[in-house]
Amino acid sequence: MQLEVFDDAGSLAQKAAEEIAADARSAIGARGRYALAVSGRHMPWIMLRALANEDVSWAAVDIFQIDERIAPEGDPDRNLTHLRESLLQHVSVRPEQVHAMPVEASDLEQAAAQYALALPSMLDLVHLGLGPDGHTASLVPADPVLKITDADGGITGLYQGRRRMTLTYPTLNHARRILWVVTGPDKTPMFHRLLDGDESIPAGRVRRDQAVAMADRAAAGNRT
User: Fold this and answer.
1) pTM passes above 0.90
2) What is the CATH number of the domain that holds 122?
3) Over 90: is that where the pLDDT of 44 sits?
4) How many domains does the chain contain in total?
5) pLDDT of 51-65, one tens digit each?
C-alpha cells in the first residue's frame, strides 16, 4: 500500500482532492465516465469542499455513498446532508448523478439490495476513512455485515446509536482504486495495523493493491 504523510489535515485534504480530480480526468478521458464512492464524517467534507474547486467534468461523474446512517432526510447525522453542503451545492451535477442510499425505506434489506443494483460493474475510486476501533465504511467489529460475501450492500446492527446501510467487501475490493484518508492521533494504532495488513480489524480486509493511504502526521505516528 502506498503511503503519503502530510503535516496537517488541511494539506492532506487538498492533496486528496487533487488526487481524486486527477483520477477523474484520467477515467473520463479513457472511459467517458467516472464512478466515485465517498465515505462520511468531518474530514471528508473538508476534502470534498476542496474537490469542488478542482477541474473536473462533473457532467461525467456519478457519485455513490459508501455508507449512510438510518435517519430522516436532512438529519445532521446523515452523510448525505454534509455531502450536499460540502460538494453537491458547489458543482454542476444532475439529480440522477447522485446515488443516495435509500435509508428511509420501510424494508431496509430490500433497499440495500436495490441500491446495489444501481452500482456500476466497477467503482473507479472508493474513498475510505478509518475508525479508532478499526472499522471502515460501516463495516464495524463483530457485526454480521462483515460476513456478507454474496451481496454488494447490507444493513448493520446498532452502532453508535444508529443502524447503517453500507457497501460490503465484494464491492470495495472490486474497485479500481482505494483512497484511504486518515487523520488524528486516536487513529494511530489502527492505522499501523491497517498498513501492516492486519485482517483481524475490519479495515484490514480491504484489498491493498491499487490502494493509497494518505494520513496526517498525527495519525501516521512514526510511519513515513
Assistant:
1) yes
2) 3.40.50.1360
3) no
4) 1
5) 999 999 999 999 999
